[in-house]
Each structure stands twice: as structure tokens, then as C-alpha cells.
């Protein structure tokens, strides 16, 4: 399981022109699920995500988590995070989980964030053609992969 974490001052997601999710200060999370991912991968990344200290404290040092600043979380599914690009010019998504496996894990991840985090949580829609707007704060962008870090 792979996530791209972007510290934002604002972010939103639209589907067919309709606003379906929006946050102010917080984290935009792009979540890619691989065919061999499990709830264990989700649990690991979730703990890292909500405790990651990437917001500035009073001294301007990145020392606060999204919980500490009561920031929002905008979660968006992103199968293209598992693109294989070594051969040719057209990415292969063979490692990305099929929807019948990915949807339950995506829903599990979102449900667990809702259980463990009391701040604002918004989502996109799995499988939809989404338009993401964001103001990356910093910029701060971090990539985590449950397979690379366990």
C-alpha cells in the first residue's frame, strides 16, 4: 500500500463539476492499493499518517502532527501510484489491486481514520474521474509504502 501525503493549506475534490470533499489546513492523502496489500498494511500506514510530525510549531520547526493542529484529511484513491514505468512509455498498472479487492481495503482505511481521528475527514469517490485542487503548504510532500517500511 502506498500513500502520498501532501501538507496543504486547502484541498478539494470535484466529480463532474460537483464539490464532493473539501478541507482547509491539513493533509491530502492519495492512496494506492496493491494486489497483495492487507489490513495490516493499512493499519501500519494509518498510524504513521496520523502521528507524522510535519506541521510547524511556534518555533517554525516541523514538530506537530495533523492531530496537534486539528487539521482536516482529504482521502483520495489513486491506483496510478502503482504504475510500472520501466518498460516502454505506457505505464502498466498490473500491480494495482482490482476493484473487488481495492474497494474493501480503501473503505477499511477510511473507516479506521474515522475511528481514530476526530478531525474533519473528507473523501473522493473510488473509481471516479476526480479533479483535485490543492495549495501545497511548504511544499511538503511525503511518500510512504507499507512494503518498503515494514
Model description:
With 150 residues, this protein is an alpha/beta fold. It has one domain (2-145): 3-Layer(bba) Sandwich (D-tyrosyl-trna(Tyr) Deacylase, Chain: A). Helix content is 23%, strand content 38%. The chain is built from 3 helices and 8 strands; from the N terminus they run E-E-E-H-E-E-E-H-E-E-H. Strands 1, 2, 3, 6, 7 and 8 form a 6-stranded mixed beta sheet that branches. Helix 2 (99-116) links the parallel strand 6 and strand 7. The N and C termini lie close together (11 Å). 33% of the residues are buried. The model has no long low-confidence stretch (mean pLDDT 94).
Helix content: 10-25%
Radius of gyration: 15 Å
Sum up the overall morphology in one term.
globular
Distance N terminus to C terminus? 11 Å
Briefly, what CATH class?
A: Alpha Beta
Give the domain tally.
Answer: 1
Number of strands: 8
Q: Summarize the biggest pleated sheet.
A: 6 strands, mixed
Q: Low-confidence stretches at least 5 residues in length (pLDDT < 50)?
A: none
Instruction: Compute the number of helices.
Output: 3
The CATH architecture is 3-Layer(bba) Sandwich
Which structural class fits the helix and strand makeup?
Answer: alpha/beta
For CATH, the homologous superfamily is named as D-tyrosyl-tRNA(Tyr) deacylase
User: Strand percentage, roughly?
Assistant: 35-45%
- N to C succession of SSEs: EEEHEEEHEEH
Compute the average pLDDT.
Answer: 94
CATH fold title: D-tyrosyl-trna(Tyr) Deacylase, Chain: A
Amino acid at each position: 500500500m502506498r500513500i502520498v501525503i501532501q501538507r496543504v493549506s486547502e484541498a478539494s475534490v470535484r466529480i463532474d463539476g460537483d464539490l464532493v470533499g473539501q478541507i482547509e489546513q491539513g493533509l491530502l492523502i492519495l492512496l494506492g492499493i496493491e494486489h497483495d496489500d492487507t489490513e495490516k498494511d493499512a493499519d501500519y500506514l494509518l498510524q504513521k499518517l496520523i502521528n507524522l510530525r510535519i506541521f510547524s510549531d511556534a518555533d517554525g520547526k516541523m514538530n506537530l502532527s495533523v492531530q496537534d493542529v486539528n487539521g482536516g484529511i482529504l482521502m483520495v484513491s489513486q491506483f496510478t501510484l502503482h504504475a510500472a514505468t520501466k518498460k516502454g512509455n505506457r505505464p502498466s498498472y498490473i500491480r494495482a489491486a482490482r476493484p473487488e479487492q481495492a474497494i474493501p481495503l480503501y473503505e477499511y482505511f477510511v473507516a479506521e481514520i474515522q475511528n481514530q481521528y476526530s478531525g474533519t475527514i473528507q473523501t473522493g469517490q473510488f473509481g471516479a474521474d476526480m479533479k483535485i485542487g490543492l495549495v501545497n503548504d511548504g511544499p511538503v510532500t511525503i511518500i510512504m509504502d507499507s512494503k518498503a517500511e515494514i
